[in-house]
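Q: I have two molecules that I believe assemble together. Could you output structure tokens for the complex as a whole instead of separate predictions?
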Amino acid sequence: MKTQSPFELFGIDHLLDEEERAIRDVVRDFVDTRIKPEVADWFEAGRIPARELARELGELGVLGMHLEGYGCQGTSAVAYGLACLELEAGDSGIRSLVSVQGSLAMYAIHAFGSEEQKQQWLPGMAAGEKIGCFGLTEPDFGSNPGGMITHAKRDGDDWILNGSKMWITNGNVADVAVVWARTEDGIRGFVVPTDTPGFTAIEIHKKLSLRASVTSELVLDDVRLPADAVLPGVVGLRGPLSCLNEARYGIVFGTLGAARDCLETAIDYSVNREQFDRPIAGFQLTQKKLADMAVELGKGMLLALHLGRLKDEHLIRPEQVSVGKLNNAREALAIARECRNILGGNGITLEYPVIRHMNNLESVFTYEGTNEMHTLVVGEALTGIPAYR
Amino acid sequence: MKIVVCVKQVPDTWSEKKLDPATKTLDRASVDGVMNELDEYAVEEALKIAEATSGEVVVLSMGPEQSTETIRKALSMGADAGIHILDDGLAGSDAVATSLAIAKVIEGRGADLVIFGSESTDARMSVVPAMVAERLGLPQLTFANKVEAPGDGTVKAHRLTDYGYDVVEASTPAVISVVEKINEPRYPSFKGIMAAKKKPVETISLADAGIESASVGLGAAWSEVAEFADAPARAAGTIVTDEGDGGTKIADYLSEQKFI
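A: Yes, here they are, computed for all two components at once.
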């Protein structure tokens, strides 16, 4: 009997048009030839060729691909989601690089920047010649960004920034940082070239997750910026939160890529691994695991595509993105752990992608809104009561 | 310069291919189709020449309905327009009939260069480019691993041989077939993918092209598949146990089989 992949089981291709399938195939091809052969080594070394990769990803067209103009591709949201999925089937760290560049740094400038800021930064960032990072989270303010300490004070026409930002993807390789800071008028965004005096990035080491990704702390020590460094289009937390909503949307799809890679690996392994003179895939205990995981993966994909269609019609609401992030990050992590179990001892090595995805997904489960925060957003949508205030 | 690049949709190299017992031809419906890999090099070369000479690339494919996917892929790589020769009467055409249909369509439209991949991964005959050149009465520069077409009415190619390469030159219009290693085919860009669906693809039937249906298709094929069978299962092989004389035993075996 001809076997089916989990997505074939759900007839997912039928839900995609020719253009979406073509974009997905190009990204998958890139991941298969460029990322998968090397990423285990990058993960083990805790280093990635970020500059080189950014340029290649820019050439591929994935950086800010769903934005219009300024050298961006202007694809649909669904196509962007599919690209995130394929990238994360390679590694969550690579998808993180792309998410932070496109959905956080570029989106912030695209949505709230001045025409000059857009002209100055977006074409180079779309091409991957300039790398961006996004500073919102602080050492003491994660789920509660409204409490941030980083502040910007006027000095004549200039702004002076002080404070620090934590868990900043791309921090040490960035040319530009979009930094959110408290001002007299409320929280505002600043476009900070990383060579500005007083700006320092400190790489965070000893990570056991997202090792194929650069993570940093940003220190802002009397960083003097001209008046036009501020993002003119937004005041208040709405600014950074709408950026996060973009990135979370990509994660709804991305996590499924990691989960798919784990599940396909586990299916292949279980069919070929023999114990007691038969493939372990022939045992009912294994088949139940595989079937349950395929069902969750397919359900997650149906949800992601539904949210993608809503987004393309500009109908999506933040709490719906929370539903997607809550479910898909949780189920992807559960799938990765179960697949690790199926691979037995082999599951703990980087010879197989499973434990790498599993460890990465621990970060993805937490960042861009913890599972708890998304649960409370959904809870508030259902009851009208904000439990976190 | 107008360049026609001919592409074929073939079964995915990695898929299991089957023959249809009724027609004794390849069952194209049950496998995923992809652009013949060597044709990707042909498209890339056509695009490079067109970019350098402000030329136009028209992609031409003959095949069933789903061949439009392969035409779209070439369009998303950057080709300007497509022609799809589509007719149920073409099913089962051999190389002779295929070259007739392609030549007839190109003859009606004209081209400065016609570029092919040097073979298809399904039929693997490598003869269609030469046949098309012959039918059109054009010079043929086949198995090229380097092409120079500056748009001045000449074309020069390095033609791969068993010993090295020949440098061959012709006036345009001319027919070229390219081998892999001539270039690195580009990925379709997202902009290209999105633009592809707005590019014109003309569908041409046998009647449109003025081709008699009796001269193409399975019925007109010069050869016929009489019967086919599965490849025999591989035999277990012989294991030679080395008792200090392993080398001798292997040499004896090879000599018995007349390998040495």
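A: One point stands out. The beta strands of chain A are 132-135, 151-155, 158-169, 176-183, 186-193, 199-203, 215-225, 274-275, 278-279.
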